[in-house]
Design goal:
Blueprint (H helix, E strand, L loop, with lengths): L5 H14 L1 E5 L13 H4 L4 H10 L7 H10 L4 E7 L25 H11 L3 E7 L31 H17 L6 E5 L12 H11 L4 E2 L47 E6 L16 H13 L2 E7 L9 H17 L17 E6 L2 E6 L7 E3 L7 E6 L21 E3 L13 E7 L2
Parallel strand pairs: 1-2, 1-7, 2-3, 3-4, 4-5, 6-7
Antiparallel strand pairs: 8-9, 9-13, 10-12, 11-13
Amino acid sequence: MYQFNREEYDKRMEWYRDARFGMFIHWGLYSIPARGEWIRSTEEMTKEEYQKYFEEFDARDFNPKEWARMAKEAGMKYMVLTAKHHDGFCLFDSKYTEYKATNTKAGRDLVREYVDAVRAEGLKVGLYFTLLDWYHEDYPHYQDRNHPMRNHPECGNENRDFSRYVDYMHKQVEEICTNYGQLDLLWFDFSYDDMRGEKWGATKLINMVRSLQPQVIIDNRLEVSGEGRGSLAECNPTPYHGDFVSPEQIIPPEGLADIEGNPLAWEACVTMNNHWGYCGTDQYYKTAPMLIKKLVECVSKGGNMLLNVGPDAYGNFPPQSVEILAEIGRWMKKNKESIYGCGIADVPKPDYGRVTRKGNTYYFHMYENTIGPVPLIGLDKTKVKGIRALADGYELPVSTSWVHSDYPDIVFADLGPNPVLPDSTDYVLKVEMED
């Protein structure tokens, strides 16, 4: 019977809980038609119709060293690349399929180049691997909720052997766990309907993964999809429980805890625009100030943010993504201390922003100024050691103004007479407290 080992779990989660910020990259054949990574399903393309993108794929401008450099300069600590997405196409050199980058005009193992580039920048290496496969003949076609041929009775499932597919999928996972050195994170995607848990041979799969990569962190999608929490949250972990919960395109309103009230590790995966894979007509990009505030929100609730980039057909980051990453990086350079290793603070959320905490240090994130001195509600006035502006380190006095004499128990920081914050996105006050 499976026994969850909390000590081993906490040890492998240390770097992840400290990192707080990572980059997701969705890239593959679907980047050529540029209508999103689900195009083969949403447009119900046949294998033959989709094949033209395989014939065209050349990774002409693929430069993972540049990807990793931009991630690091943005303040990210880890990266996750789609080694294989639902269309079944592999960016790695698998000996179990011909449907891979080495057989395209690109002619090489792109995952190999990616992992080497990420490690060279000192970042943690993550790979995404889908449990679905719309290319494999033994994967359910007709009436499967997601398969491109779901509405085609001529593509019936009578002669398909799902156990053969599961064996194939396990062998490919074994390849990526064997051929690319130490992996820090495996991001499986995703369970649905009755396709979950042991339908994937999950216990056997994770036992194999843990034997090859004992330190690797794994998401919770062998059990659930983007809206689920999994067995660790139920305090009854399966052998294939997720190490973290993976809410998609949403930040949990109050953070996440298990049924006993203990905080859960979690990561909000978020797109920059409205697609994961490159979409040539989607110009609806979130601004860098918005994404900075959402990162802070995740950290203040005890979570991570995995921010997605969808490179174009050739392998270039969209110029909008490059600009957004650079702007986030400029903020992170000055304020990263309030992100890395930080989490939930035991003080109320202020009207003007949010609070993150690391040990006895509180970081008050100000999105707007206050009228009069800044109230740091929830702190013990007798234990404040000092207040600093995080960006440049200058000391802020505790206000002694007569204005707040009606609030003798609240700590007020004096920002001076200027009503405009030095950083209009997020100005951070660092408050050190005595034990």
